[in-house]
Amino acid sequence: MGSNMPAVRNAAAVLRLLASNSRPIPASAVARHVGMPRSSTYQLLQVLIDEGLVSHIPETHNYSLGVAAFELGSAYLRKSPLEHLAQPILARLVAQTAQAAQLGILHGREVLYLLKEQPPTPTTLVTGVGVRMPAHLTASGRSMLALLPRQQLLALFPRRESFVDRTGVGPTNLRELRAVLAGERERGWAVEEGAVSEGVTSIAAAAHELSGRPAASIGISFRAESVRPEDYPQLAAYVAGAASELSTRLR
């Protein structure tokens, strides 16, 4: 077992290096950082690719974190004090907006809802605790996807089949998704209208780590007929403020 320890340390060093870079990097940079021969570096990278921890971008011959790395991070968050930090923020958001509020994290191509707060008159919606939804269709998911580097988005959605459809609304390929994310990133919040459930609208914003990577999302959901579209920006301001507060608490 002891003979495997250097390999484990090298693998950990590779993952930390990829996590600290906002863009995919070449194998030569990995080899320099870890201090390994290129041949050994390629072998190690291939093992990490096989395990889903690293993604290879054929067009550029570069490497980035894989989907399994995001899943490990999500597993950590599920066991961390995230819910305890977010609960009073969600409760305040419900009081401000009179809408159901939820906390979500990325789990591969899905958003996993960890916490939900209801207004005095509860509304039955699909965003219950433990529910998973396609990230590209939900406001919660897209608010976090908008903060991912371009190549990591490609790693999550490598082909058209990666895009699940529920109601016929929402992006169906990577080009469409990137266009939607660009607008939502510039605006600072995401909105989804009927892409998950007909007649239900959601508004969400991402809380992020100090590095800028998404840590979680805070959102509200409501029946479309209960809120006028011209009121969305005011609701979004409350949502974005809640996400900003959670970002501060996570640092």
Model description:
It is a single chain. By secondary structure, this protein is an alpha+beta fold. The protein has two domains: 2-65, Arc Repressor Mutant, subunit A (Orthogonal Bundle); 71-250, Beta-Lactamase (2-Layer Sandwich), CATH 3.30.450. The chain is built from nine helices and nine strands. α2 (27-34) crosses α3 and α5 runs antiparallel to α9. The longest helix has 19 residues, at 232-250. The mean pLDDT is 88.
Outline of the structure:
The chain has 251 residues and is α+β, with helices and mostly antiparallel strands. It is built from nine helices and nine strands. Strands 6-5-4-9-8-7 form a six-stranded antiparallel β-sheet, with helices on both faces. Strands 1-3-2 form a three-stranded antiparallel β-sheet.
Short key terms for the protein model shown above:
2 domains, 9 helices, elongated, Beta-Lactamase, Arc Repressor Mutant, subunit A, 3-stranded antiparallel β-sheet, 251 residues, 6-stranded antiparallel β-sheet, alpha+beta
Q: CATH H level of the largest domain: which superfamily?
A: GAF domain
Give the total of beta strands.
9
**What value does the Rg take, in angstroms?**
19 Å
Give helix and strand order, one letter per element, not per position.
Answer: HEHHEEHHEEEHHHEEEH
Q: Total helix count?
A: 9
**Any idea how many domains?**
2
GO molecular function, one term: DNA-binding transcription factor activity
InterPro entries: GAF-like_dom_sf, HTH_MetabolicPath_Reg, Tscrpt_reg_IclR_C, Tscrpt_reg_IclR_N, WH-like_DNA-bd_sf, WH_DNA-bd_sf
Keywords: DNA-binding, Transcription, Transcription regulation
Protein name: DNA-binding IclR family transcriptional regulator
